[in-house]
């Protein structure tokens, strides 16, 4: 989104946060992070909200994946780039989450 799209960005952010809140009321994410991308709720924009464990939500506009973890987790066959993976993989050689 571009600076002149501020009103659109605010609307998309509001919709993402509202949807995230409804999802969190319906599902237990105890101790796990979660994420929601705008296209998942029918919004054709490059925007997402992620909720790391025990932290405030983070809104991403025009996000880019710059690295992924080579580890796969039981819930997915894909390489992981989640905040949950960050806590498990931090410090491992080759991890994008390495400090």
Summarize the structure in words.
This protein has a three-stranded antiparallel β-sheet, covered by helices on one side. The chain has helices spanning 6-26, 83-89; strands at 34-37, 47-51, 58-61. It has 99 residues and is of the alpha+beta class. β2 (47-51) and β3 (58-61) form a beta hairpin. The protein is globular, with a radius of gyration of 15 Å. The model is unreliable at 93-99 (pLDDT under 50). The relative contact order is 0.15. The chain has two helices and three strands, in the order αβββα. The protein folds into two domains: 1-63, no CATH class; 65-99, no CATH class.
Q: What is the topology, as strand order, of the major beta sheet?
A: 1-2-3
Total count of helical runs of at least 4 residues: 2
Q: Write down the overall geometry.
A: globular
This entry's quaternary arrangement is single chain
Flag low-confidence runs. Answer: 93-99
Terminal-residue CA separation:
30 Å
How many individual β-strands?
Answer: 3
Q: Given the helix and strand composition, which structural class is it?
A: alpha+beta
- CA radius of gyration is 15 Å
Mean pLDDT: 76
Q: Helix amount, in percent? A: 25-40%
What fraction of the residues are assigned to beta strands by DSSP?
5-15%
Q: Write the element-wise H/E pattern from the N-terminal end onward.
A: HEEEH
Largest sheet: 3 strands, antiparallel
Counted up, domains total: 2
């Amino acid at each position: 989104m571009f600076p002149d799209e501020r009103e659109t960005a605010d609307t998309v952010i509001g919709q993402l946060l509202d949807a995230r809140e409804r999802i969190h009321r319906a599902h237990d994410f105890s101790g796990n992070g979660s994420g929601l991308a705008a296209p998942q709720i029918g919004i054709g924009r490059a925007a997402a909200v992620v909720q790391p464990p025990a932290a405030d939500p983070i809104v991403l506009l025009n996000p880019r994946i710059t690295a992924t973890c080579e580890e796969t987790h039981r819930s997915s066959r894909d390489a992981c780039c989640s905040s949950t993976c960050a806590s498990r993989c931090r410090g491992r050689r080759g991890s994008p989450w390495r400090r």
